Fold this sequence. Notes:
- The complex is a heterotrimer.
- Chain A is α+β, with helices and mostly antiparallel strands.
- Chain A has helices spanning 5-29, 58-71, 92-95, 106-109, 124-128, 154-158, 203-206, 213-221, 237-244; strands at residues 47-52, 87-91, 112-116, 134-136, 142-144, 165-166, 196-197, 226-230, 247-248, 260-263.
- The longest helix of chain A has 25 residues, at 5-29.
- Chain A starts with a helix and ends with a strand.
Amino acid sequence: MGISRRKFLKVTGLSALIAASGKAGFELLRPGQVEASSVPLAKGKRWAMAIDMRKVTPEMIQECKKACHYYHNVPEFGNPKVEIKWIWAEQYEHAFPDEHHEYQPIDIIEKEFPLLCNHCSNPPCCRVCPTGATWQREDGVVMMDWHRCIGCRFCMAGCPYGSRSFNWGDPRKAPKELNPNFPTNPDFPTRTLGVVEKCTFCEERLAKGQLPVCVETANKIEKGSFIFGDLADPDSNVRKALRKHFSIRRKTELGTHPNIYYIIA
Amino acid sequence: MYDGGKIIVGLIIGIGLLLSPFFYNAGKALKPPKPELTPKAKQAKVCVESLEYMRSNHMHLLDKWRQTVVRKGERYYKSTNGKTYYKSLQVTCLDCHSNKSKFCDQCHNYIGMKPFCWDCHLVPKEKK
Amino acid sequence: MLDRALKGSSRYWGWLIFLLVLMGMGFVLWLYQFKVGLKITGMSRDVSWGFYIAQFTYLVGVAASGVMVVLPYYLHDYKKFGRLTVLGEFMAIAAVLMCLLFIMVDLGKLPRLVNVIMYPHPKSILFWDMIVLNGYLILNILVGWNALAAERKGIHYKTWVKVLAYISIPWAFSIHTVTAFLYAGLPGRHFWLTAIMAPRFLASAFCSGPAILLLICFIIRKLTRFDPGKEQMRTLGSIIAYAFILNIFFFLMEIFTSFYSQIPAHMDSLVYLFRGLDGYGRLAPWMWTFVFFSVVALILLIVPYTRRKEDTLAVAAGAVVIATWIDKGLGLIIGGFVPNPFDKVFEYWPTVPEVLISVGVWATGFFVLTVLFKIAVSIKEEVGV
């Protein structure tokens, strides 16, 4: 199947335009944090995030949660039994239950950590999924296929971090008082009753050269708080941050190799 | 016929039940579907593919789109008409065809088909 | 042979109609659940599996236990169990059917069940569970039905039936090992992350299933002309005794590892189950009931006099069924999810719709069991066993 020269030039021209505008939009939104090697962002890497806990505040985490949930049409149920959360705040002793002790500095004990899917390099959730509705992409994102999920919730049992939520009911039937503008983003679908969902590292935004919503939101509040980048590139912002600062991850003894790093010093 | 009476009565009831939808709808004719194009769709003149192709194959196209977008991350579709489209029901298709009740539903309702796409994919609000 | 199920006493029909009513009620409630979602159950973001999966886990064990009458007969030439093999296989059929139904009522999107076949993922234990369970169902249908048909005709069944019976023996062990693997390989759930999970499952299966079979045999002896046999019941009693002692021993091993090591991740779930954690202790009375019935069962099973006397043996069997149902059902499932990955306690208790749907599934299993046993017993009565 041949392609005419004219068609080829049209397509490459259009693709270059899209890539360039994506990168431009990226630079517009995140001055000073541009990934030099990030064009196109969706190509084969190891996405990870370093969160600088010295800059994170509880209010910032709430803003990130609101932004993420607004962008992805995650409804609010006001009931922890059925709640769906992609990113949320948890106190130190609950984020790191095996690390905490009562003699830690008070600002650590009272600190709230933003928790989300760790997009592990060795994810147990993907191992146990019987249909491949969740799987690990080549670029490291642990992805969800909501067309295929049968709602068996094996992945929820397999995840050691409690990152996954299930649609116990129809998300569109969440209480109207708590979700006045639902759906909040007409460009992104909702999910349906009976499927598991979680953070997908905003993969649809990564494909356009944009950063995840939480990263954008956090960095608007305090620059350099959420550092999103490519672990495979030794010169990336994430690698530089991890080289310079001491970071911890959740439950590393389980061998899941989580890719959310919390910089604490 | 052994137990003939019961058998014949049973047959009448059974076949009657089987044919009941036809009796119910006898004499009524459903209006043929008349999908309407929005001004934006009329202006675009061409869809992602030709009308004949889309009429019979839009469901296969959308299925292929969702497989390649979600599972392979391939988000751009090179159409036979030369243009490249962003593969998205909500962002691309419904951008032009924003009148679901007067477009998509026309044929779907006619054949009694309820695609479950709408369980998740959002429909632009239509003016009544 | 199916016509044997259509001729019965008014008591038989009354029982079937009672079961049908329960099945209907369960079905109607399930339709409601299918429409509004699993939010009508007690499951939550933290305890994402509950009563349905607990019943599934317990019933896989009951299904596997058919091997406890088949193995002595085929591998050790214990001809006395010849009366019981078909009954064991038929009980396995009913149990596997209930397992499949419990999975189906627990799924978020049942219409997509086909995806497990269309997009197989051999790394997932659920994939293997589906294969071994369905395979076991087919094996038991083929072997049980053909063995019974041969018995009715007074001839010896064909060799291929015997081959399948032999295959069903390791297969029975495999179904419960695979089910244990569902739990025993999850890195975040320390209550389940134990090598002894599969042995525990097998031990509790091999006492609970035969205990149920024993009780059913006593009922059969009372209600029909077929006598499963005094010596058979005695042997079954011994099997139940050894398996139950092993089951309790394994449980005590878990207690030792957790509490001697003093590792919180190992202790917390057991503390929650038996005492309560952070002020939440809803399951404690439930678990201590398990302990009470275990003690009763142990005494009645170990003391030879009470094990040999059939009425005390029946009490022991009942106690075994209750104890294992609690321990392997809700005790096992909820222990895995509490405390949650954030070291907090979010409690679970089944809701009324959830229990009633489960009752509907159990009624379906008992319906199938009754029909199959009616056929088997009628034929055995005719043949004059």
